[in-house]
Amino acid sequence: MKTDFEIHFAKQAENPAMDMYHYHDFYEIYYLFGGERFYYLENHIYHVAKGSVVFVNKNDIHKTLEGGAGHDRAVLYFTDRFLGRFTDEQLKLLLSPFRSSGKVMPFNNQQQSYIENLLFQMKKEYADSSLPGRSLFFESLLVQLLLFTSRISMEAEQIAPKPMDGKMSEIIGYCNENYVKPLTLESVSSRFFISPYYFSRLFKRSTGFHFPEYINTLRIREAQRLLREDDGKIIQIAERVGYSNITHFNRTFKQVTGMAPLTYKKMIRSVPKT
After folding, report:
1. Residue limits of the HTH araC/xylS-type domain (predicted)?
2. The whole model's pTM is what?
């Protein structure tokens, strides 16, 4: 993400899965104009229908899955810095949908019209980078959208996630608590008395991730947090998140984040805190 606010629209006849596991240190709002999607978000799978919003919090692991007959959507992203002038109390209200237990909200036709009007105004403004006061315009529309959805979320029921297989839910919980250990597909499948072949298929079908992808995502997400908040050496951080080989850590970190650990650390330390 090159700026503190972005918005993108897309329409597809088919619903392929997102290529990679995914997380980021900014907020994401996903709105579905039409069609349907299956969305993996923080250990749950949601069926997202027309007129629904998905709220992806910072560092939530998420991925769209295969399924459904096409979709038309808008996605907008924004950083903490973009709303930096608001007080903690105001941000608590504005960002409440991202922190609720349900991550997907459906809206009726009237509410959809209001949301879509805001999104299309953003789209029109986004197309012309020369407009004066462009950032202020985005901020005003985003605040309207966040306030609108926050108020409704306090009253309305959110979409419940699709129940995950009991055994798989137990496995995911185990991985989330023990990812710094030397977990392998074989060791985890053996622990839960499942054949490695069946375990691999079940894990992919349930989460959209291959098992090694998921473990690496958990580890690198924690490594990023440590690089932001800890003064330890990179080799020490690699060991703390489960990598005994620094070369493997560096390669995996770059695959997940697009940059080397040292580059990430320097970039984070150069950004002024708000």
Report:
1. 169-267
2. 0.69
